Amino acid sequence: MRYLWCSGGSFRPALAESAGLTDASISRIVANLKSEKLIDESRRTAPYQGGPSVFLTLSKDRYVGALEFSSGRVHLGVASLTGEIRFSEWLDLPDGADAETVDGTCRRALRQLADYVQRSGIALCQIAVSIPGYHEDLPTNPIIALNPGKILGDIQRALPGVALLVANSIVTRAVTHRLKLGATLAGGPYLYIFAGHGVAGALVDDFAASGDVVPCEIGHMVLNPRGPRCRCGHFGCLEAYVSTAAVAPAIGIREQDLLTMGEGRAGRLKLSTRARGDLAMRLGRLGLAIGNALNLMPVRRVMVAGWPAEFGDEAHAGILGGIEGSLFGGASAVNITFSNAELGREPAAGIALATYAYLHRGAMQPEALAGEITTDNLTE
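-> structure tokens emitted (380 positions)
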């Protein structure tokens, strides 16, 4: 099922090869999954003459939900296992909102989600909650004035019997990115960096083999104790320099424009010499933080997602320069690549996390997991 999810669907021979099973075993497993309405079959043109025509996908009749705190908003949504969004809304939740405002916004978001589920008659298999700065040992969140335990309790009361997963936002982004790359990526673990309204990193192992996604704090790595104040309360964090909230005004555009910038638009921006210099400084700081992280990690593959991906060679040179100045041994051994920003597409990331959590549990029926809450340790 995980292979079908990552690949978007498959013919049986490719599925058998990827799983290392015989055709007979695949036929037996497919029959069982079809009887449980977990996968669908459709007819599609064979990939070669005389080849198979039955195409397998995850079911469009099983649904997951998500609450995703991202980019100054609470995003909520419901989608099928194939990722088709059935319901999507968002509510504003600006940085620095007090606990009462956050609590009220969360209650309204949850009420909208529960109302939609009730009206549509959809039975959710899984809900994922994605929160920046989340850590299971912290009773309060350092980024948003919320109590994760209270939110999860409210969800359990509003939607009883649905399994819940709560995770740090970087886990959500990394899992979604791995899905985008597909089921066949090889090459071992890599450091995944996301730079958007928030900035974070994760060490990602081969998703198809193990699914390990381990958050590593990089966005709130302090680079200059006398630097600008960060939303976490400290001064001079990496996020205070390279988040979209910091970069956009520095180069003379709105943050929302940077968040929604399509591929190639960044190259057409008419930036002043001063703005270009400021951008290079910020990219260098990002590289500096990445190099510092790599000094502690046995990996040399780095994937950078978010707004830097829109600046192409300029971002590559700036980040490599920062890595060169901080990484023992230099940047020559680092393989750095970029992923399109895909900003402004919430709650797609939260939906992907919910789907992964459901599949990771063996697609068990909701009643078998009634009220179960897990955290972002996806390999437990």
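The longest helix spans residues 99-120.
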